[in-house]
Each structure stands twice: as C-alpha cells, then as structure tokens.
Design brief:
Immunoglobulin-like; five-stranded antiparallel sheet; 33% helix; SH3 type barrels; alpha+beta
C-alpha cells in the first residue's frame, strides 16, 4: 500500500509543473545579442559616385539565431546595389537566414544617388531583426547601428575657409582673361570692371567645364577627369585648371593676334590700292574716294588745318596717314548710249526729279554699269577745291588736295557751298 501511495504521489508531482528557480528562469530567457558592424569607405556622396558599405553580423552568443535579416532606413533618393555600383538593386529587407553559434555573415552593398536627390547631412540606420528559439516559443529582438553621410554636388574642400569649388568656377576663366589682357592686349579683356571680370570669369569657366564634360561622354581621356564636377577639388586640380586657363588664353590670344595681323595687312593692301595718286584720272579718283569713305550723303565739307587754313570740297576720306579732299565730277549724258541711260534709270539710281541719288553705293553703281556696258566711263571735273578765307570763298584749279593726318584739326560740313559730288549733265 505504501508503494502504491508513493507511486501515485510521484505521478502527481510529475504531472504538476513546478516553478523554476530564478536562476533557471533567467537562463532560459537570456536574450542573445549578435554583433553588428558597418563600415563605409567614404562619407561624402556625389552624383555618379557611390559609397561602399561593408556589413558584418556575428553571433557571439550561446544560442543559434533561427533567422536574421538586414534592413536600412535611408533617404528615398538612395539606391542600394549588390557587390558593385552597377550591381542589381537590392530589395530590402535583405534575408540572411539562420546564424549558428560563433558564426558571422558579411554583406557588401553600394549606395548610389537617384536622378533627383537632396543635398546635406543624413543619418542611415542599419537594423538587424533576428529570432531565436526559447523552449517552445520563438523570441524576437533587433540590433542597430547609426551611420551618417554627406550628400554634396561639388565638394567641401576649402583653403583659408574659402570653398575650392567656387575657385574652380573662377580660376580657369580668370587666368584666361589675364592672359588675354596682359600678353596679347585684347581690347575686350582690358575694359571689364572688377565685378564684370568675376562674372565673365565664371561664364568662361562654366563653358570650359561644360565643353570638357561633353567631350568626356565621347572620349575617356584621363586629363578630362579634372573637369568633372564629381572629382575632388584640391590645390593640385586648381593648379591644373589655372594652367588650362593660361593655355586657352594663349590659344585665343594667338588667334586674335593672327586675325589682327591679317586684317592690318589687308587694310594696308587696300589702302595702297586705293591711295590717290596725282596721275589718277577723274574716274579713278572718284571711285577711290568713294571706296575710302563710303559714308557720303551729298553734304559738302570743309577741312580745317591746324595752321588756320580752310579748304572746301564735296567729299573727303581719311586713311592711316593721309586726309584727302576732292571737288565735284560730272558725266555727260550725250556721251552715253540710250541703253546705258535706260539701264541706270531702271536700276533705281535716280530720284523722282531725275537727279542721280547722292549715296556712295548709288554713285559707284552707276559707274560700274557704264563700265560694264561701254567698257569705259568718261568722268570729268565739274568743280574744284575751294579755299575759305574768313567769309570769302575762292575756287582753285585743283581737283583734289591731301594732307598728313597730324596737320588736320577738323573736318566739318560746309553748307555755304552748293553742288553734288557727281552729276549727269
């Protein structure tokens, strides 16, 4: 009987759960805490760049983690790629699976910017939720690490507190302008004021960088990397940009000097061809004066010399060394064929009163028509140079006069004299 009671009592004890001691309870519900380490290869992120994030999750506890995953709380303009910046976009959370005792998982992700992004400092939260088995129940917990990055467009380097990125948008154009101004004496580089020079330098620098950026899409030249907005701005890069500004200034200045040389030589050649000579006939003299100064509008002029002498005429021209003054000329209609006169009339060279329009282009046009149709144009002097002495006017026998430029004090309209440079009579 005693044996039966003992057996029944033992059976009762085995069927009734007894509370565990505090130590046993604590041991059964101890929370394992995996290690989480996140390392960035850089803190600054720009367009077309990436940040490499290496993530280690280790289980140093005495319990096996039945599941684990990685989630990242980051701005919406960040994309995470697997293994490389060009790798596939990772869908978060990233499942790691079970993590046995004293084992670890490592993941390499690359953060890149989407087309539209914000600029500034941002915090990223790397979260690892995990589960483990405690008796018959599954427990959950998380570990996390917070990291910060800076999203920028150009860079944050500075010298003496001045951001180098601003200098990179000024120095190439500024040294281009200085080279054009000091070495080649280009006129437009001499005139800008201080503020205008800064604006002009920024505009030129922006065009240089934009051109280099465009070329980089077609040619992968290492030198063009210095013009990338994403490359780090430093003293070495700025020195290179200054050299580029000087080199472009030399190139542009050389082109300017060549063009000036060619223009000067061409002007001297034309001036030599159009130089009025004492042996020129009247037609040649008239054509040359109209070529030298095409701004004729029918107004007689007076040339005032520094010695006080004054001379009147019907047109003038100024070259680099000489001032010319001519009288008036005529073409006799009776010497022209009727077809020639009709052609000149139909070309619109006469006004409503039947007088030849006193404009350089019209006068030369009439002479060209006559030359084309008749082979030669007969032009005669109609009125000569006049000398003005006080209020009196004396006609000389000279069809033209010339002086050195330094002898002239002024050339002014002279309304007292009537007549036209060329007339058909």
């Amino acid at each position: 009987m005693i044996r039966k009671v003992s057996f029944a009592f033992l059976f009762f004890l085995s069927a009734c759960p007894l509370p565990l001691s505090d130590g046993a309870h604590a041991q059964g519900l101890t929370t394992p805490k995996p290690g989480l380490v996140v390392a960035f290869d850089r803190q600054l992120l720009r367009r077309e760049q990436s940040i490499k994030a290496t993530i280690w999750v280790s289980n140093d506890s005495e319990k096996t983690l039945s599941s684990s995953q990685i989630n990242i709380a980051s701005p919406s303009f960040l994309e995470w790629h697997d293994q490389s910046p060009d790798g596939k976009v990772v869908t978060l959370p990233l499942q790691l699976g079970p993590l046995p005792l004293h084992k670890s998982h490592s993941v390499v992700l690359f953060a890149t910017l989407k087309d539209t992004f914000d600029v500034g400092d941002f915090n990223l939260l790397f979260i690892v939720p995990y589960t483990w088995q405690a008796g018959r129940s599954q427990q959950e917990s998380v570990v996390w690490v917070e990291k910060s990055i800076k999203v920028d467009i150009f860079g944050t380097d500075n010298v003496l507190g001045v951001p180098l990125v601003f200098a990179s948008f000024v120095l190439p154009g500024l040294f281009w302008l200085i080279t054009m101004r000091l070495i080649f004496k280009v006129p437009f580089a001499q005139t800008p004021e201080k503020d205008d020079k800064l604006i002009f330098s920024v505009m030129v620098s922006a065009m240089i960088i934009a051109t280099a950026t465009f070329i980089r899409h077609w040619r992968d030249w290492p030198l063009l990397e210095n013009f990338s907005l994403n490359s780090q701005v430093g003293p070495e890069k700025l020195f290179y940009l200054m050299l580029v500004g000087v080199a472009l200034g030399v190139a542009w200045g050389s082109v300017y000097r060549f063009l000036r040389f060619w223009q000067t030589r061409e002007a001297l050649r034309l001036e030599k061809e159009r130089r009025i000579d004492i042996n020129d006939d009247d037609a040649t003299l008239l054509n040359k004066i109209l070529l030298l100064n095409p701004a004729y509008n029918g107004t007689p002029v007076m040339v005032c010399l520094k010695n006080g002498c004054k001379y009147s005429g019907f047109h003038y021209a100024v070259t680099s060394q000489t001032v010319y003054l001519v009288g008036a000329f005529k073409v006799e209609k009776e010497n022209l064929a009727e077809t020639t006169q009709e052609t000149i009339l139909h070309e619109g060279l006469f006004d409503s009163d039947g007088n030849l329009i006193q404009e350089a282009s019209k006068l030369r046009g009439s002479l060209e028509i006559i030359t084309q149709l008749e082979g030669k144009v007969n032009v005669d002097s109609r009125d000569f140079i006049g000398q003005v002495i006080e209020s009196d006017h004396f006609i000389t026998d000279m069809k033209y006069l010339s002086w050195k430029v330094e002898e002239i004090s002024a050339v002014v309209p002279y309304w007292a004299r009537k007549g036209k440079l060329l007339e058909f009579v």
